[in-house]
Amino acid sequence: MMKTFKRCINAMIHPVETFTDMWEHRDYGYGSSFVILAVLFVVQVLQRQLTGFCFNYNEPDELNILMIFATVFGAFTMWTIMNWMISTLFDGKGRIKDIWLYSSLCLQPYILTSIIRTILSNVFVPDEAVFLTWIDAIGILWSVAMLFIALIIIHEYTFGKVLWSSLGTLAGIGIVLFLAVLGFSLCQQIVGFATDIVSEIGYRLL
Amino acid sequence: MRKGILMCVVALILGVVLSPVAEAANVLNTYTYDYWGDEQRSPAGYQVEEVVTGSATGTTNFKNPQDLFVAPNGDIYVADTENNRIVILDKNLKFKKEMVEFTHNGETTTLSNPSGLFVAEEGDIYIVDRDNKRTLRCDQKGNVLSVYTRPDSQMIAFTGIDYIPEKVVADHSGYVFILCRDMYQGAMMYTKDGEFVNYFGANTPVLTLVQQVQMLTKRYMTKEQRERINRVIPAPISNMDIDDEGFLYVSTGQAGTTTDQIRLLNPKSVNIMKKNDAIKENYANVFGDLKTKWASGRVWETAMIDVAYDGDGLIVGLDRTYGRIFEYDTEGHLVFAFGGTGTQEGTFGYVSAIDTYDGDIYVLDAEKANITVFEETAYGEYIHKAIALYNEGFYEEAEQYWLQVVDYNCNYTLTYIGLGKIKYEQQDYLAAMEYFKLGEDRIGYGDAFKQVRNQFLREKGLPLMMGALVLIVVLYIVVKIVKKSKSKKASRTGGAQ
User: Could you tell me the pTM of the whole model?
Assistant: First the structure.
């Protein structure tokens, strides 16, 4: 347990060594990814509610935990699946389980900076918003850098390939979302059609 | 026994569930919008003082009257359109006289569906004689002094467009602004003697998504395709009012207008209407109802068909769709909205004009052919006084009125911002922070918080830092001791082996 925890922290500070180490020995379980995702979910909810008043533009009535849950888990799952699919195009060697785990490890810097940002937003004033933007930026850049390193190691890509496959992944996510919206509206139309028929029959019979 | 109790319980529940809810009938349905753009009920700011039809004033009934104007001396002029006359009532809404015939160059002339009215300070009456396609300026006795008609000027492209004048205002120097039906170029500006000068105050066109894409790809289209895309034309102005400095208040009511339904135009026809700073950014320049509704198979959105300025910091807009009056202050804050369609006093059928005088609001209903006069309620008085003082920066003096307003209505955002500013001036920063939070004013909150923060650091900053330093040193020493004892332990066990 301590070992997994230490490895997760190490991954943030020395990503290249930790990831290559993990990849060669393959001696890890997948539990840590769920812990990290759960923490991310909690942090997102807390961020929405506990960000200082000066920076919090969320309407209190409209808190929707289920929505946040769906966004966090949905987005992450989509990323993993699409990355795995795109990796077949680019001859990547990573398995879907590995992509899931390594991606979750890469979320850690973002979680950390989110927590720091939420705490600091209660002490800052709108004039000092720049600091918060910087903290955000550091978190995101750090996470993205870790992600690139992880993808290079898992799929055995070159740097250029990582770039293109990431863009491909994002494009893939876009396509899937578009198809989902399309499918949903089609279903709506079918249901509407069916209910119209039923009500029409109802009018005729009565 | 058990059955008896059960029946009693059922009867009780049914009695509660099925009984009609007795609601205090606020037929005026007054409401405001809070920071998030949600409707919040408000106490009535105006109540009906009087409703008069034509016959109640002492003359025959009005027929589809299209305009109303209250002159500086309190006389009420009504453009009784389908009766082809102008009716003048006195301050007490009693019939004074009617104007049917006018003398022009020695000949008598009559009106044909007069739809617009304006009375200048010196008593000159401007009448839009719609179906005669002209606007007359005449004196109190009915002598026509100037006539404004369709200009022959080469400047304007008038091909295929009918000249149908509908509304008129004039400024102090005698410039006359006439609104014509479907004229998207804005108001037509004439000199006192009837010479056309220019267009004034056109709206900016609102582009739909399709049109925006078309604008971008225009360069790549063939000539035929370019001719086929719909011309992007702005909405025409529906009505106007003018203030003492010659600034025009202009309303736009065409379907599809979702922002800037009320504009304040300076002499360069630039919109200087302030954006509402007590509401979310994307609602800041929306006048009227914020959200469009779908009901009974049609779209319900605000159609602002008239606007009036009371000369004292309040702007009222008239919405035909809902039969509502929206009152704003000069900073763009919505004070409240009230009214509705219906048959009771205080509701309307088809509104056609609004004007203000001496704190009262006059609304003309073309369908019911009556004039409704609204007077301020106590709540209205308090909120108007509070807002007037607040807008001029007299925060302290406004305090007593804000406290009265809060007593009546705790849903009004500006109250809390006003109270917050007062507390800030009195240097009670913690109270100011609380009020700003209630008023959703993040900038004000930030300023007050800065003060509290500085105070805190000044008082407790140094001791805190010393404490933190001591803590770090202590931790360092402890960690070092722990490491030393660990290595001692290791060497001891290693030695034992």
Answer: 0.83
